[in-house]
Write a structure and sequence with these properties.
Oligomer: single chain
Structural class: alpha/beta
Strand content: 15-25%
Radius of gyration: 17 Å
């Protein structure tokens, strides 16, 4: 299995980075291959616009979805978008690692969704859900909340990402890995959570897509 981890946290000493290092170590030890898109480290630009394309269909009016479709059909995406598409093409499993900020993703990850999950490549008029461009691939959200979190709260926050983004473009969505309030935990408690993540990743071979009523 080849795994892509899309990491959206600016601090290398954060618990999100610790989870990423745990994932890389665990998965490679199990014989899988892993690559990481560390969005902050690679200075990923989250703002969609004309810079997403090497040429444009209409130089006078920017219709983003129309330009994305044109870029897909004529291979005129900007190099950074092509690079993320190549990583997605290689991946069997994509792990999105991020802290929940304002009950959503950090802006840099939202921008990754905007610029990378494009019309033509990831979705289209007849290319959604079961026929989406990323069908056959699995997706896992590995997230941290700022404080202790109930399963109901996590479900409410993550449902739109699961259904409105990942499932929409064809991913089989796995039950998320959720850690509530790591900053307030003891070192031992954080170590326990990392061990729990190791077990979760080791069990992935037998993991089935999450249902809408059992996302956490």
């Amino acid at each position: 299995m080849h795994v892509l981890i899309v990491l959206a946290h600016p601090e290398p000493r954060s618990f999100n980075h610790a989870l990423t290092r745990t994932a890389v170590h665990t998965l490679t030890t199990l014989g899988h291959t892993v690559e990481v898109s560390d969005l902050h480290a690679q200075h990923f630009d989250p703002v969609a616009g004309r810079g997403d394309f090497t040429t444009t269909l209409d130089p006078d009016f920017l219709h983003l979805q129309r330009e994305q479709k044109h870029a897909f059909e004529h291979a005129t995406y900007a190099p950074d978008i092509r690079a993320e598409h190549d990583k997605l093409d290689r991946a069997d499993l994509v792990i999105f690692q991020f802290p929940v900020w304002w009950r959503s993703t950090p802006a840099i990850l939202k921008g990754w969704f905007d610029r990378v999950l494009t019309v033509g490549y990831a979705y289209g008029a007849t290319k959604v859900f079961e026929t989406g461009g990323l069908r056959g691939k699995r997706a896992l959200l590995s997230v941290t909340f700022g404080g202790p979190t109930t399963a109901q709260e996590a479900d409410e926050v993550l449902r739109q990402i699961h259904e409105g983004v990942l499932a929409f473009v064809g991913f089989d969505v796995l039950t998320p890995f959720v850690v509530g309030g790591p900053r307030a935990m003891t070192e031992q408690a954080r170590a326990t959570e990392l061990t729990r993540y190791e077990r979760t990743l080791a069990d992935l071979a037998g993991t089935t897509p999450a249902t809408a009523s059992a996302l956490v």
